[in-house]
Every structure is written in C-alpha cells, then in structure tokens.
Amino acid sequence: MSALQWIIVAIICGAIEIFTAGFWFLWLALAAFLVAIGGSLGWLATLESQLLIFALFTLLFIIFTRPLVLRFIKSNDTVSNVKALIGQHGIVTSQIDPIHFGQVKVNGEIWTAISSREIEVNTRIVVTGIDGVKLVVEKSED
C-alpha cells in the first residue's frame, strides 16, 4: 500500500474515534500514520512488512498507552444510582420495626426501608446503607 492509502486509513480511523470516543480507533489511526511515514521513507516496502508494523504498533499502543489515557481523562462521575441515596435524609411514611419493613420518602420517592430499631411515622431518618432493594435507615439526629 502507498503512504497515501495509509493516511486515508488513519483519517478514517480518526473519524471513527471522534464518533465513538472509546480510545480504540485512535491507536489504529496512529499506527496507520506511522506506517505511512515508514512507507514514504522507503523503510517498509512490502505490504507484509507494513501490515506487521501496523499490527505491532497497534498492539503496543493499546496495551501500554490506552490504560494511561483512560486514567488521565477519567472524569469525576457523580453517583447516579441507588448508592447516591446513602447519607440522604427522608421521612418515615410507614412505621419501621426491626422485624417488619416500613416505608420512607427520600428525594420525593417512596422506598421500602429496614432498621435495627423501631421508627415511628413522620420521623426524620438518614439512609445509612442499601440491602438489596431496601434502604437501611436510622433516626436522624438533627
């Protein structure tokens, strides 16, 4: 393949990377670009050598640089699932006993709740944990 063909491969892989942002096609694009340089300088004359170097650079980039890049760009994701409820306050809507489930309202949603102590209706609670699909709650001190 000619250097121009490898540059086209690099551009296509770069475009795919822009739309997927998974940091897989970026390494293919960089490897294709390096093969294009090697081919234009006459170092990689045969298709077999070009494909070998392309595969080698791609593998090395994925193994050694992808984890570093992913760690570098990792954002501080906000917790958006049920674990985000830990530490939240709410109100008991159905009495909670140690041997019976009750219900609480946290952030406008009704949840099944358990506690190691009895908690009366309209008592302010704090979520201390998650047990399956139930909230573990305690009386709030404030």
Structure description:
- With 142 residues, the chain is an alpha+beta fold.
- The chain folds into two domains: 3-73, no CATH class; 82-139, OB fold (Dihydrolipoamide Acetyltransferase, E2P).
- Helices cover 43% and strands 22% of the residues.
- The protein has three helices and five strands, in the order αααβββββ.
- The protein has helices at residues 3-20, 25-40, 47-73, and strands at 89-94, 102-106, 109-114, 124-131, 134-139.
- It has a five-stranded mixed barrel with strand order 1-2-3-5-4.
- Strand 2 (102-106) and strand 3 (109-114) form a beta hairpin.
- The radius of gyration is 28 Å and the shape is rod-shaped.
- The termini are far apart.
- The mean pLDDT is 89.
